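Q: Hi! First time doing this. I have a protein sequence and I read that you can turn it into a structure. Is that right? Here it is:
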Amino acid sequence: MTFFAGQMNDDRWRRAAVLFLAILLLLAPILAVAASSQPPVSTPAASMTIARSGHTATLLADGRILVAGGHSSITTAEIYDPARNEWNTAGNLSIVRIGHTATLLPNGQVLAIGGTLYYGSQRGDLYDPATNRWRLDGTPTITRRGHTATLLNDGTVLVAGGALDSSTSAERYTPSSGTWSDTGNMSTLRYYHSATLLPNGRVLAVGGTSLSKLAELYDPASGEWLATKPMQYVHSSHTATLMPNGRVLVVGGFNSYYGPYPAPYDSTAQSNTEIYTIATNTWIAGPPTMLTRWNHTATLLPDGRVVVIGGYSGYGQIQNSVEIYDPAAGRWYPAQPLREPRANHTATLLPDGTIMVIGGSGPSGILSSAERYDPRNAVLGIQRFLPWISRRLPTALPQLHTPPILIPVTPTPAIFPLSNSHT
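A: Yes, that's right. Below is the predicted 3D structure, encoded as structure tokens:
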């Protein structure tokens, strides 16, 4: 009897499997039509004149994007014009820069500093869009790479960490005089960390390759750093995004002193996220991303959602996936992927609501290509194949009717072995 009962169960499973396959075959044409009828999300853009990874991309006041430096000993810069979909040269930096920062100043000029590996190279380059040229401007006191540069409310620039000889140091740049002055030191060594300007004028420094759970706040009035409550996780080569509700969303990064090395050491890339609340000065664990990520980008949309693009999911594992965080729902949704995998790229929100994704490292090497990702056409989760259930899931992002609020984001440079010689 047991034998016959088992045989009957097997027959039922076979019939169920056949029925399931038949339903899939019947639905295949419908799914294909649904997928093909969706508007394109990512479209190719003109390629740069040179491949770049670890470069910077700065949105200028006129809507163009200034791209500077990058891997392979690059001193060149170029400008992308979204209206014409073309690149034009933008002069040369005074030195090679990778792992540097580029900060848009109130006068419309761009300050590029750091990103070098040798001592005696503490020089700042200042780009003037009116003349399309770079000139030397001021000399930081310390050589830096993997640092952060944050424009403060008074127009000065806070530069912190990333120093070759003292990663706790910080200094401030005054554009009107082109001078640098020391300010208070951080309590923790930090490079490849993040720095976020908060609505109250303070700067939140998070993570870095020292892998400390201690985050701290810089007070421009006193020049001092104050500790926050401990974080939930450690992060390096992560992203930190200020959301409209005043909270800061920290996503991914790696969490091991081994860094991004091959197996068995590479258990480092993480999907952990956490959220900082200014009012309580505390951290809470956020919803994890669907994939592990480091050296990705995070772009804030005008409706408050955050688009996370690409990055490494492990040693050499570069991905093209895109996820969108909805703070109202408190969860992540997968969206259509990039056209090609990228890590250590840049992502710049344009005034029309599209995201310009530029360069980076791909599976076959450093990229010169660029693509334009339109989150307004993104279809989230299972909606990509079953659009008729859209009432249960968030719909495509709304069309923009007003220019978005642009928040400058300094891209995270590439991470390699943790020493002064990493490139």
